[in-house]
Prior knowledge:
With 288 residues, the chain is an alpha/beta fold. It is 45% helix and 9% strand. It is built from nine helices and six strands. A six-stranded mixed β-sheet has the order 3-2-1-4-6-5, sandwiched between helices. The model has no long low-confidence stretch (mean pLDDT 87).
Amino acid sequence: MTVLDTRKERLEFNKLQKRLRRNVGSAIADYNMIEDGDKIMVCLSGGKDSYCMLDILLNLQKTAPVSFEVIAVNLDQKQPGFPPEVLPRYLTGLGVPFHILEKDTYSVVTELVPEGKTYCGLCSRLRRGTLYSFAQQIGATKIALGHHRDDIIETLFLNMFYGGKLKAMPPKLLSDDKQNVVIRPLAYCKEEDLVDYAELKAFPIIPCNLCGSQDNLQRQVIKEMLQGWEKQNPGRMETIFAAIKSVAPSQLADTDLFDFVNLKLERPSRIGMVNLWEGEGDGVRESA
């Protein structure tokens, strides 16, 4: 590799890193994700997204206008072949405080989910419950998840096509029991940028062999559809995400979001007819 090539790659890496940090910083600011004194529990799965999220948050921590703490947490779900030594070694090398939780949700999911059905729904509920409880145990004020822009868009279409609901993943969420606040710092980040960043940073990726082993996942179908749209019309994903951020309840049909029932005319009871032809011959005038 020539010196010129090395310099070019370094330049491209710096641009990518700045773009990701800017996107994360903007999302944090727009939704007030992190406040002074926060204790952020960063959920680290071993996938590219959570590695990127941790890396970017640690960098922002050094220059952020507020002081916050970062604690990495991994849930070892006892999937066959999961390498338990990878994350502790990586996090120890970074000097980041961390916890490894061990809970055999793998056996529960594979036992309860019928053959041919996807594991994702039950798996995510079990994982979420464990992480929510642990966040309270360690006094975490925010739980950071690694969902990115593409995840949010895919979830929107999954819910529309398969669930009959118009909803996605909010960048910031208060849990149903009001005991935890979930944040998604990567909400403005494109998946392709995260793929490139993870590759350049050489994160020790651990694949998910639970859901990844299943064929014809609904999410994969949606992903391929969206990728096809983006290829045919570059910029479409950006437009869809902009729509998620700009909702007009009165232009939909949800009576809980907009009071259609009590819509009334708001105009005087008697309005004179307008003379459109005044000055150019006889026009229509209001009758006495």
